């Protein structure tokens, strides 16, 4: 069932937004699809709104229903604007990452608490001076977003605690995610540099999603699934080969249900 946002926005009652990452294209079994138009074009996918664990949830597949948007082409502003239009009061952002530290194993989850932006050329603000596309309620042409702590503790903490309710799951509390532009993976030298800096995981989509949510005033947190050891990370065994999309998607496929379980256990404790 497809509806237009203006027809029943108040009735949808979306409380929590979820952005699905690579391989995570569906989340809600019983949902309506919402057509939303934003000043930045259409979101990456249809917006599905349904109920899970007693909460009304809005879901967008970050890369599109058929993974048609590579990382640097994801319509981040349209995605976040759509969630804001629905009135969500928090956003959970699952994503896949490569590990940069030997103690983080493939299949582990990391609820990151810091971010390093190594992207380029991405539109990363709603406050474009002279664009005519500023967030409603902005005052004046210049806005500098506080961003010292990119992830809201009110969303992080329920995700961490939810890990105790999923059998066999290892969830790490905290870590720094470095976001690269993509669509290529890191060179061995880059990977070794990131690791030497003490950063925890590497990803292609964590920015500007996080800062756009902050500008929209929506508490946001990311839960990262470790899908691979990045190209230059030693793990005490023979040197492993380069990271490929096939190996990433294989681990994602094995953990889609786990991601759903983790979010389902966290939902009742997210901001109301």
UniProtKB/TrEMBL annotation:
<feature type="binding site">
    <location>
        <begin position="228"/>
        <end position="230"/>
    </location>
    <ligand>
        <name>substrate</name>
    </ligand>
</feature>
<feature type="site" description="Important for substrate specificity">
    <location>
        <position position="186"/>
    </location>
</feature>
<dbReference type="GO" id="GO:0019509">
    <property type="term" value="P:L-methionine salvage from methylthioadenosine"/>
</dbReference>
<dbReference type="GO" id="GO:0006166">
    <property type="term" value="P:purine ribonucleoside salvage"/>
</dbReference>
<keyword id="KW-0328">Glycosyltransferase</keyword>
<comment type="subunit">
    <text>Homohexamer. Dimer of a homotrimer.</text>
</comment>
<keyword id="KW-0660">Purine salvage</keyword>
<dbReference type="InterPro" id="IPR035994">
    <property type="entry name" value="Nucleoside_phosphorylase_sf"/>
</dbReference>
<feature type="binding site">
    <location>
        <position position="22"/>
    </location>
    <ligand>
        <name>phosphate</name>
    </ligand>
</feature>
<dbReference type="InterPro" id="IPR000845">
    <property type="entry name" value="Nucleoside_phosphorylase_d"/>
</dbReference>
<dbReference type="InterPro" id="IPR010044">
    <property type="entry name" value="MTAP"/>
</dbReference>
<dbReference type="GO" id="GO:0017061">
    <property type="term" value="F:S-methyl-5-thioadenosine phosphorylase activity"/>
</dbReference>
<feature type="domain" description="Nucleoside phosphorylase">
    <location>
        <begin position="16"/>
        <end position="267"/>
    </location>
</feature>
<comment type="similarity">
    <text>Belongs to the PNP/MTAP phosphorylase family. MTAP subfamily.</text>
</comment>
<dbReference type="GO" id="GO:0005829">
    <property type="term" value="C:cytosol"/>
</dbReference>
<feature type="binding site">
    <location>
        <position position="205"/>
    </location>
    <ligand>
        <name>phosphate</name>
    </ligand>
</feature>
<comment type="pathway">
    <text>Amino-acid biosynthesis; L-methionine biosynthesis via salvage pathway; S-methyl-5-thio-alpha-D-ribose 1-phosphate from S-methyl-5'-thioadenosine (phosphorylase route): step 1/1.</text>
</comment>
<protein>
    <recommendedName>
        <fullName>S-methyl-5'-thioadenosine phosphorylase</fullName>
        <ecNumber>2.4.2.28</ecNumber>
    </recommendedName>
</protein>
<feature type="site" description="Important for substrate specificity">
    <location>
        <position position="245"/>
    </location>
</feature>
<dbReference type="Pfam" id="PF01048">
    <property type="entry name" value="PNP_UDP_1"/>
</dbReference>
<comment type="function">
    <text>Catalyzes the reversible phosphorylation of S-methyl-5'-thioadenosine (MTA) to adenine and 5-methylthioribose-1-phosphate. Involved in the breakdown of MTA, a major by-product of polyamine biosynthesis. Responsible for the first step in the methionine salvage pathway after MTA has been generated from S-adenosylmethionine. Has broad substrate specificity with 6-aminopurine nucleosides as preferred substrates.</text>
</comment>
<feature type="binding site">
    <location>
        <position position="204"/>
    </location>
    <ligand>
        <name>substrate</name>
    </ligand>
</feature>
<keyword id="KW-0808">Transferase</keyword>
<feature type="binding site">
    <location>
        <begin position="62"/>
        <end position="63"/>
    </location>
    <ligand>
        <name>phosphate</name>
    </ligand>
</feature>
